[in-house]
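Appendix B. Raw example, untouched.
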Amino acid sequence: MLKQRVITALWGIPLVVVAVWFDGPLPWFTILAAVAGLLACLEFYRVSGVSNVLPLAIFGLVVTVLFIGYPHCTFASALPVLLTAAVVLSLIILVVMRKREGIFSNWAWMMGSILYIGWLLSLLVTIRLDAGRDWLYLVLFATFASDTSAYFIGKAFGKHKLAPGISPGKTWEGAVAGVVGAVVICLLFMLDTPLQLPFGYGHAVILGVLISVFGQLGDLVESLFKRSFGAKDSGGIMPGHGGILDRLDSLLFAGAVVYGYSLICI
């Protein structure tokens, strides 16, 4: 299990780092986010049953990609137009479908996936475009540090269950270690390096705590989603890690909180 996690990380992390660093001739991070979003949606649809309703699944995949790429659009009203079209057109699809049993439940999960995966991934794209690659690296590295610290410390020293009804393997010891790991990474971004960010110790500590706490909450949300359908992993595309959604869950929430914090406090 550990060997598989390490091997996956050895190719996965460099891929993400390179995609974030280079922004030409194509928007590589947006492309990577779109591919990851599509795969995550497919996993989400398989678990929730939306994949059994092909028109909704196809519609959801298309709109998710549009949400992820919308930060590149210069049209000021792109987001409300896209959201309105997603709701109205998907409901029209329900009207013309022959199979109607449980259809609104599938529609709700499809719309949820668009917001959960498409909208939250679009915030990471927005961070890359508006704040710059260094801010996105902060989100990525601090989240990775939080997840890794929580995993290893939790495995070695964890005794007090964090949320046994949702994710029995998570412990308070691991959660605290995750916060420490994220804070350390945020403090490192204050150093005089090519990735230096213009904030002080206070902002670094607060960002580290927020990234770790919200990242772990994102992990629990995805665990709750899987548990509600009796699934252990969202998929198996990443050996040792599960599916794409299992890797994105922390990043989605961490990116959202950093996006909000940067707008309000920095």
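End of appendix B.
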